[in-house]
Amino acid sequence: MIFGNALIGLREGLEAGLVVSILVAFLVKTDRRFALKSVWLGVTLAVVLSAGFGWLITFTSHEMTFEQQETFGGAMSLIAVAFVTAMIFWMRATARTIAAELRGKLTDALKIGPFAVALMAFLTVGREGLETAVFFYAATQSAGSGTSQPLIGFLVGIAVAVVLAFALYKGALRINLGKFFTITGALLIFVAAGVLAYGLHDLQEGGVLPGLHTLAFDLSGPMPEDSWYGALLKGVFNYSAQTTVLQAIAWIVYIAVVLPLFLRKRKAPVKKQEQPAPAAA
To answer: Transmembrane region positions (predicted)?
Structure first.
């Protein structure tokens, strides 16, 4: 699970890092350093909220029965898939305009006051943090108890994201963000498909969905999950040696629908041509 979690940490961390770097750079270049404290206050509160939310859902699940834990874990996995899917499409659509949008919002917030600036930074970064907390919980559930791989993956991804964001802010590194988010988005679709399948399996074990013992395939013999290749597939695609029919159908349908929609080329907006003025008589 290290690769998939590192990918999530990298994406979410870089998005949050880009947001913070855009806000800070705008304030520095426009000689409004007095508002930096408000931005960092909002960012700090967003990080604290995200960490607290992650702890809350983890602690809450420990107080449940087995069926309740499976149902709760399955529901959180589906929410995580919805968050990630929305995130990759949102960033694909706004990668080129996000800087201008953030500068406009920050300009409006500066007119209101420090509280508005802190609130804007809090809401912008907090959304990424909540998505990360939900996906981290779902990844922890799918990896099983007693393993630190999800945490290691997330920390590695976030650490790389912080370094990249700082290098971008200082101008020491230039990245084609459009291609970067396209490549990582395509990989995340496969990660999300695995989380979707595992979430449905949790709901089957919780008795919410039927078909727990109706298997599409059983590869426990030729490709066990504890083998190096099984562990690799599980870490990247959340592979399960015993996959139910519902899981297999959901995985295939998700990939078949979401991946082509994400990779299709967007049509450039057609500019309206101005009508020539009528010739003077």
So the answer is: 6-27, 39-59, 71-91, 112-139, 151-169, 181-200, 245-263
SS3 215: strand
pTM for this model (two decimals): 0.76
CA 34, 39, 40: angle at the middle one, nearest 5? Answer: 105
Residue 246 lies in a domain: yes
280, part of any domain: no
Which of 138, 3, 142 shows the shortest CA–CA distance to 58?
138
- Domain assignment present for residue 89? The answer is yes
Per-residue pLDDT, 266:
64
The pLDDT of residue 129: 83
Give the C-alpha separation, 125 to 122, whole Å: 6
Measure the CA–CA gap between 84 and 258, rounded to whole angstroms: 12
The angle formed by the CA atoms of residues 209, 211 and 217, to the nearest 5 degrees, is: 135
Q: Please tell me the total count of domains within the chain.
A: 1
Residue 138 lies in a domain: yes
Residues 6+ apart with CB under 8 A from 100: none
Report the percent of the chain where pLDDT is more than 90: 18
